[in-house]
């Protein structure tokens, strides 16, 4: 128990020492296969040499001037993001919740409307605007009054979404796969309908790619997998491979509404963060990397669906790319503890879902070792079919 830190995380009895690739070492010398990637951030693996080199080089040049200066690094990264996303304007921030706050502000200012439609079991952050957009009562508890103007619609319910998105709606914000909500993929018909109705009624269509972006699902952004046409996209976590950085990207015409003084952040887009992002995006563009993600994904789903067939406690395996949820009939905390004892760290997504988010660059050998441990932990904790 820390003497001085606020206990906002239920910390494990493990003290981080170092990490390389897909392996974490604790101060007592134990090594763990990382099946959480720093909560979905270290997509390119811990301490990737190209990212370390880029950040170290910039560190000696300077890590902050201010956003009153023009930064070549910002322009270069914005160009890379525009090229890969198809969205022309970029605002840099420091975290996913900041990017979502910026998106909500921009939507209200650009449309002159107040209402934001989001979805039950969504997660968009913990600051007031993004928390209000989060469709989980437990996240709201103790923080009333929340900002007004937020409506929650059942996820994967296209008919209800069509009813709730109106001419008063400034924006619809949605995750293509709900991460914190249980690794729940959006259905194609649902996401298509939300996109269509938002466009028809003049609402901005915002896709939160904070967890799904930067190759996590096998595409640079998950909306590309679905063929969606967002007006605004937010991204963080994997964007800087664990370095605190985020971006809100939007259509060219939206820049009219975010002029000088309309929004800002002191440290957003600093040169050190831009060095991390630039190197990360260069790795993302490496030929074959995303194909390898898809191949690893097939292996994971094949292994876990066989486990699903054999186990009485695993009911479903879902997700995309290397964002996988193992749905169980019982609380997964004992399984996660057993996995940790055997050398794998991973996270839950709700009470009954194990969430696997390994680095995209994990080796086939290390992936197989980790999956063996997951399988053993589930079998030892629960029961298997005769």
UniProtKB/TrEMBL annotation:
Chain segments annotated as transmembrane: none
KW Lipid metabolism (keyword) present: no
Keywords of this entry: Amino-acid biosynthesis, Aminotransferase, Arginine biosynthesis, Cytoplasm, Pyridoxal phosphate, Transferase
Family designation: Belongs to the class-III pyridoxal-phosphate-dependent aminotransferase family. ArgD subfamily.
Database matches in PANTHER family: ACETYLORNITHINE AMINOTRANSFERASE, MITOCHONDRIAL, AMINOTRANSFERASE CLASS III
Other noteworthy facts: May also have succinyldiaminopimelate aminotransferase activity, thus carrying out the corresponding step in lysine biosynthesis.
GO molecular function: identical protein binding; N2-acetyl-L-ornithine:2-oxoglutarate 5-aminotransferase activity; pyridoxal phosphate binding
One Pfam family, short name: Aminotran_3
Entry binding sites for N(2)-acetyl-L-ornithine: 126, 265
Record text on cofactor binding: Binds 1 pyridoxal phosphate per subunit.
Cofactors demanded by this protein: pyridoxal 5'-phosphate
Gene: argD
Subcellular location: Cytoplasm
Protein name as it appears in the record: Acetylornithine aminotransferase
Principal EC category: transferase
Residue numbers of N6-(pyridoxal phosphate)lysine PTMs: 237
Catalytic activity: N(2)-acetyl-L-ornithine + 2-oxoglutarate = N-acetyl-L-glutamate 5-semialdehyde + L-glutamate
Gene Ontology BP, a term: L-arginine biosynthetic process
A single cellular component GO annotation: cytoplasm
EC number(s) stated in the UniProt entry for this protein: 2.6.1.11
